[in-house]
Amino acid sequence: MIKVNTDKVNITKVLTRAVENAYPNQKAFFTALSSGRRLTAYLGIDPTGRSLHLGHAIAMRKLRELQNMGHRIILLIGDFTAMIGDPTDKGAVRKKLTHEQVLENCKSYREQASKILDMDGSVTGNPVEIKYNSEWLGAMSFADVLELSSNFTVQQMLERDMFVRRMKETPPKPIYIHEFMYPLMQAYDSVAMDVDIEIGGNDQTFNMLVGRNLLKSLKSKEKYVLTCKLLTDPTGKKMGKSEGNMITLDDKPEDMFGKIMSWTDGMIELGFELCTDVSDKEIKNMVKKMASGENPVQFKRLLARTIVEAWHDQASAIKAEEHFNNLFKKHSIPDKVPELKIKASKKSIVDLLVDSNLATSKTDARRQINQGAVRLAGEVVKDEGAEVSITSKGVILQKGKRSFVKIIKS
């Protein structure tokens, strides 16, 4: 039988480090974790993409702390909810995914998650359970759904911050009926698994609290909710694909290192708190040194090395930093550059960017050129109508700081 660790220092760390809020409150949560009872904690992930990202990793680190303490851990794959998609404040209807697409997306989730969680229990003796919410949501009848929905009002659902923002816009953005149903489906996950704790990002607070209310209503059971801080820049902007700095758990070490080095200096302190085990005392000391005038770059490098080492290994972190030095500090081209063979002797720079996958479209290619992000043979390309001569020797096409392709005449 697994013994539960009730050390007060560990519990305090669980409830404070990287945490935005604890529900119903920190005192009640502390009492539950101090009871010695083995609690069931879970994190739900909708497989709308093939890679787990930094937001998942922050929540999984918190889940790992509970796993180390002996609590039962569930990683829930939202293979049913992913086909619907959590609403956004953009108001656009999400592209619906098939169940086959969803299952394809999550095929390597276990492997990615194992970089943080002890999936098979070989270290902690406490393996992670993987569950899929199609098991219960897919089996519900329309009558079941109607019965479930009777536990909430339209007014309650309209309290969700993104719906409030959408209604305040001019003209108001539409809210679809199925968007009301998503929090209800996520809430029922808690009931179906009979959990004690749910972990998630602060942007999932509404959904997780709906689950807390539903579990209390249907089973008279208290569910504790822990919301994690989000890694944002000083303006509150989250990382994302469009900024080119979204870190995924299957990123190569050198890509991961480079993306972290692109973070603003204002993200260093939060990065250490959310993504590493560096002590609070050490973090405060670094913040004090930066405030007194020390160059933040050295601390950002330490952050990048620490994260890459945690998610890969020490040797990979060392090589990643060497790659960064070679690529950025010395402004040189990597040893290995992918090649694109072209039959034509000449081709437009816009077409080459699209053909080499350095741009997603011609519009994107022109935007990159106008922003000064494109280089040909080391020179910034300023003319979006430029024609490129292609020879058997080849020429290096570069986008941004990290993306290179060698264009060769076949």
Descriptive key words:
globular; 18 helices; Tyrosyl-Transfer RNA Synthetase; Structural Genomics Hypothetical 15.5 Kd Protein In mrcA-pckA Intergenic Region, Chain A; 410 residues; six-stranded mixed sheet; alpha/beta; five-stranded mixed sheet; Rossmann fold
How would you describe the overall organization of this protein?
By secondary structure, this protein is of the alpha/beta class. It folds into 3 domains: 8-228, HUPs (Rossmann fold, 3-Layer(aba) Sandwich); 253-329, Tyrosyl-Transfer RNA Synthetase (Orthogonal Bundle); 339-409, Structural Genomics Hypothetical 15.5 Kd Protein In mrcA-pckA Intergenic Region, Chain A (Roll), CATH 3.10.290. Helix content is 44%, strand content 14%. The protein contains 18 helices and 13 strands. It has helices at residues 8-16, 26-34, 54-68, 99-105, 109-113, 134-137, 142-149, 154-158, 161-168, 177-193, 205-219, 253-261, 268-275, 280-291, 296-311, 314-329, 349-355, 362-370; strands at residues 19-23, 40-45, 72-77, 129-132, 197-201, 224-228, 339-342, 346-348, 374-376, 379-380, 387-389, 395-399, 403-409. The strands form 3 sheets. Strands 1-6-5-2-3-4 form a 6-stranded mixed β-sheet, with helices on both faces. A hairpin with a 3-residue loop joins strand 12 (395-399) and strand 13 (403-409). Helix 10 (177-193) packs across helix 11 (205-219) and helix 15 packs across helix 16 (314-329). The model has no long low-confidence stretch (mean pLDDT 90).
